[in-house]
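Materials and Methods. Structural model of AraC family transcriptional regulator. The 276-residue sequence of AraC family transcriptional regulator from Ruegeria pomeroyi was retrieved and submitted for structure prediction as follows.
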Amino acid sequence: MTDYEGRILRVLNYIHDNPGGDLSLDQLADVAAMSRFHWHRVFRALTGETCAQTVRRMRLHRAATALVQSRARVDEIAASVGYPNPVSFARAFAEAYGQSPSAFRRTNRLLPPLPPFRTGDYPMLPVEIRTEPARRLVGIPHQGAYSAIGRSFESFSALCQTRNLWPQIAETVAIYLDSPDTVPEAELRSFAGGTWRGDDIPQGMEEHRLPGGKTAVMTYKGPYSGLAAAYHSLFGTWLPASGEEPAESPCFEIYLNDPRTVPPEELLTEVCLPLK
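The predicted structure was written out as tokens:
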């Protein structure tokens, strides 16, 4: 068992033992002793579920066990697993088990509580550990679906082109500041820009600084639509076997060629994970 699998088991046991307690993402990251920036990615890559899905499933599993093995009232069971509102509990239970809590109690059946680990299910892509330089970025903040960040890159590119800024841009970079698993799509924050070698920040752009340091860099070749699988490979295959710890910094991507001049299958992207 890897260290990361041990952390997952510790979190799963914590959820099981505290179904009515604080099972927020921050609390579970503390239990795992992991960076809040990257905990959710590791968890999903290894279990195949988001933290929220696991919490919901395990709470309802505890409720199902209590329904079959105890005579407690349904509302008491609901409260004990973190559902103070019996109506919302009944709705969630019916969605998961296909019948009401009372009907389930009469069937006297249970379901297995834990999914298998998924370590090794993802393709291995090349990863190297590098010492990245600190970067001063300029660009356009983006809010909304990460898949739509291209709109902000189009604006960034247009400003660079019309103002002849490209000679002062060392490389094109994106930063993804939130977890799609825990933040509503409309509220996701990212940054589309490039490493700035000039002086003053260009009008209409903002500055963002990356601290640099020890970084795991995965090189992905192919269309940007396949980057989600690359992240699964990084967090689900490479990281658990690496013995490394993620830092309290977001992932970022460095784009090594231009989608306007090369076909999608030839695009090269470095997926960068800051390490402690």
